[in-house]
Amino acid sequence: MRITAADLDALERRFEGAQPLDILRFAHATFGERAAILSGMQRAGAVVCHLADRAGLAFDVVFVDTGVLHAETLATRDALAASHRRLHVVTLRPERTFAEQTAEEGLLYLSKEGQERCCDLRKSAPLHAVRGRYDALISALRREEGSTRAGVHTFSLDPEMNALRIHPLAAMPREALDRYLADHPDVAVNPLHSMGFPTIGCFTCTTPVRPDEPERAGRWRHLAGVEYCGINPVDRAVESAVELDDALAARLLAPA
User: Fold this and answer.
1) 139, exposed or middle or buried, with CB in 10 Å at 0-12, 13-18, 19+?
2) Strand bridging mode 136-138 / 35-38
3) DSSP assignment, residue 63?
4) I need a labelling partner for 252 at 20 to 30 A (CA). Which of 43, 101, 210, 224 fits?
C-alpha cells in the first residue's frame, strides 16, 4: 500500500502531546522487529534507547560507524550494548576504509561538494545498504534544534529507505531532556558532551563549541553553511511516498 505524508496526518494528530514512551510502545506494537532505533550515540538518542530498554521494548539499534568516529563514541556504543540488554546494537560500516577512500578520491571533506559525497559514502550509503530490513526507523530529532528540524513531525517518510521515520522526542524541550538525564544516571551518555561537544559527528569534522555559539557551530566549522550530513530526510526536504505491506499499513493507519 502506498503511504504519503497526507496519510499520516490523522496519526500525527492522534499522538499530538503524547509522551515519548507511548510513541515507542506504539512503534513496537505496530512494527515489532521491523522497527529499529537509529542512533549516533548522542545524548537525545541515548534517552530514546534508555526509554525503550527500561520499558522492556526490544529494538535493534542501528549505528553507522563511519571509520572516523571518536574513540569515546565507539566506547559509548559498547557501553550501551552492555547495559541495555533488551536492545541489539547493529553496527554498519562503509565499503571502503577512510584511508582507501582518501587514496582514491582525496580528502573529500575539505570542500562543500566533497563533504556531501563523503557523508553520503560513509553515513548514508551504509544505511541504504540495509533498505528492506526495517519498515520504521526511530530517531531522536527535536523541533527545538531549529533550522530544518524546527518542523519535524512525530511521523514522517523516508523514501530512500522505503520506511517510516518516527521521532518520539520531536516535542521535547531541552529542559525536559536535561531533567531526564539528571534523573537517570544509567543513561549511556557520550563523554564528549561534557568535553565541549554539544553535537558529535566524525572527528575530522567536529570541534568543541564555545558557550556563546550555536550548538551546531562545531560541525563542519571549516565549511560555511554546512549543518547536516544528510542521513535524515528532514534535513534534505525530501517529500515522497513509501510502499508498506497492506496489513502493516492497515495497523499503522487504523483509528485508535
Assistant:
1) buried
2) parallel
3) E
4) 43
Whether residue 10 contacts residue 253, with contact meaning beta carbons closer than 8 Å, is answered with: yes
The pairs formed by 26-33 with CB atoms below 8 angstroms and a separation of 24 or more are 27/136, 27/138, 27/166, 27/168, 28/52, 28/57, 28/58, 28/59, 30/136, 30/248, 30/251, 30/252, 31/134, 31/135, 31/136, 31/164, 31/248, 33/58, 33/60
Active-site choice (49, 119, 205, 229): 229
For the entire predicted model, the pTM comes to 0.92
**End-to-end Cα spacing for the chain:** 20
pLDDT digits (tens, 9 = 90+) for 60-90: 999 999 999 999 999 999 999 999 999 999 9
Query: In this prediction, what percent of the chain has a pLDDT beyond 90?
Result: 77
Q: What is the pLDDT of residues 29-45, one digit of tens each?
A: 999 999 999 999 999 99
Question: Any catalytic annotation for residue 229?
Answer: yes
- Is CATH 3.40.50.2000 the right assignment for the domain spanning 2-240? no
